[in-house]
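Internal tracking record. Fields below are filled automatically when a chain is submitted to the structure queue. Please do not edit lines marked as system-generated. If the sequence contains nonstandard residues, flag them in the REMARKS field before resubmitting.
Queue: standard
Priority: normal
Entity type: single polypeptide chain
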Amino acid sequence: MNPLLAVQAALAYLLDLLIGDPRWLPHPVVGMGKLAAGLERLVRPGYAALSPEGKRRKYGGRLLGLLFPLVVGGSSWLFAWCVVQAAANLHGLLAAAVEVYLISTTIATKGLAEAGRAIYGRLAAGDLPGARQELSQVVGRDTERLDEREVTRGAVETVAENIVDAVTAPLFFALLGGAPLAFFYRAVNTLDSMVGYNNERYRHLGWASARLDDLLNWLPARLTFLVMVPAAWLLRMDARGAWKIGRRDAGKHPSPNSGWAEAAVAGALRVQLGGTNYYQGVPSHRALLGDPEKPLAPVHILQAVRLLYLTTALFCGAGTIARCLFAALFA
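SYSTEM-GENERATED OUTPUT FOLLOWS
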C-alpha cells in the first residue's frame, strides 16, 4: 500500500486549484473522447445489423456496449499505470510528481468554478445572450431562448451536479487506487456523457457505460452529501435545509446519484431547481428539487461556487486523513 497516496491526492487537488486545465496542455479526457468516438464507429455497423425483432437488438446491443467501458476504461487505466511505471523506472520522486499531475487532470474544481463565474459575469453585466452562450459550453440543454432565471438555474444545477462528477468522485478513486483508478473513473464518466443516453441511438449500446457510471458514483455522491451539510453551515447557508431537502428530494432526480448534490444545494440556497429543459427542441421534464423560498437570482451562482470550493476542500481533507489512518492500520 502506497503511504504517500493520500498526500499525492491532496497535492493533485491543490494543483488543480492553482492551474486548472491549461489549454496548451493535452488533456486525457480529450483522448478518452476520441477513443470512444472511434470505437462507436467500429461497433455501430454491427449494432445496425442486429435484427430489431424480439430481444436480439436489446441484448446484442448491450453485449457490444460492454466494449466501451472495457476498451476505453481499460485503456485509460493502463495508460496511467504505464506512465507512472515509466517515471518510476527513472526516479521515485519523478513517479510521485507524475502521479500528482495525472490525478489533477481528472479533477476540475477550478474549471467548474470559472464556468459558473463566467455565466454570472455575463448576467451581472446585463449580457443575457452572452450568458446563454457561456451556459451552452457546459450543458447539453438548448440555451438560445432561456431567460435570466433559467440561465441561472442551469448554472447552479451544473455546478451542483459536477461537484461529484468532476471533483469528489475522481478524488475518491484516486485515494483508493491512485492515478490509474482515477483515470478509469474519468473514462467511464466521459462515456456516460457521450453514449449513456436513454434514447433510440444509445439505449442499448450505452447501457453498460451508464450503469457502471451509476455504480461508481453511488458512494461518492452520498459521501459528498454528508460533507456538503457542514460546508453549508460553515458558509452560513441553510445547513438544515441542505440535510432536509437532500434526503427528501434526492430520489426525485432521474439519476440515482446526481440528486444528492443538486437537492442539497437547493436546500442550502433555499431555492428550487429542476423543471423543463429542452434538448434539440424536445422537452424533458425534471422533478422539482427544493422549495422556492427565494427566487433564483444570479448571486446564487456565486453561492453555489463557494459551496463547491468548501465541500470539495473538506472532502479532500477528510479523504486524506481517512487514507492515512487506513494505511497506518494496515501497514
